[in-house]
Amino acid sequence: MKPIKNISIALLLVVFNTFYAQVAIEKETVDGNSTVLDFNNTPTNTKGIILPATQGLPTASPANGTFIFDKSDDKIKVYENDIWKPLSDTGNSSAVIVNTSDETGNGVVIGTQVGSADGVLVLESPDKAMILPKISVPHLNVKNPYPGMICYDTASKTFAVFDGTVWNYWK
Question: Of 38-42, 47-51, 113-117, which range is least confident?
């Protein structure tokens, strides 16, 4: 009877921890308790997040805070209050490699057991945020950026997006 109780407690702890999941990428631990997704933030990091490259705007009704790289006009966009807002000038999508595999499943949800938004990667939490990959001066240090790459520039303290031609910086 005791092994069943120990196994039950262990399973409950695993289930409980998945409800409040925190994920660290290329590092051992997440910085702070208010982080749902955290990336390697060493000074030598030159890797960012690559946004999905879509041909036009998604047909489904997106959630606020949805980011894409729109290949129809080569701009990085964010969805906010029923409007797609451009975050970059017209860039260049010629380096985008087309994914020809079938999309299956609902994607990955981090931060809650079931997400309400539709996306490949959904970060959903009432009290946690994502820490972007931190790169110092990405326009100098990232040698071959990919269209739709985003990161946080530690030198200028800005949000940086690469549109396939140039880096765009947002305060």
Answer: 113-117
d(CA 59, CA 69): 15
**Contacting residues for 165 by C-beta, under 8 A, at least 6 apart:** 74, 89, 90, 91, 92
Q: How would DSSP label each residue in 116-146? A: SS-SSEEE--SS-EEPPPEESSHHHH-SSPP
Q: Which tokens in the block code for residue 41?
A: 């933030």
Rounded distance between C-alpha atoms, residue 98 and residue 100, angstroms: 6
**Three-state secondary structure call for residue 91:** coil
What pLDDT shows up at residue 135?
93
Beta partners for residue 112, in sequence order? none
Task: Give the tens place of pLDDT for each residue, 77-135.
Answer: 999 999 999 999 999 999 998 777 776 666 777 777 766 666 777 777 777 888 889 99
Provide the 8-state DSSP code for 47. -
CA-angle at 164, arms to 160 and 167, nearest 5°: 25
The tokens of 7 are what? 């196994």
| Residue of 142, 141, 163, 160 whose CA lies nearest to 151 | 160
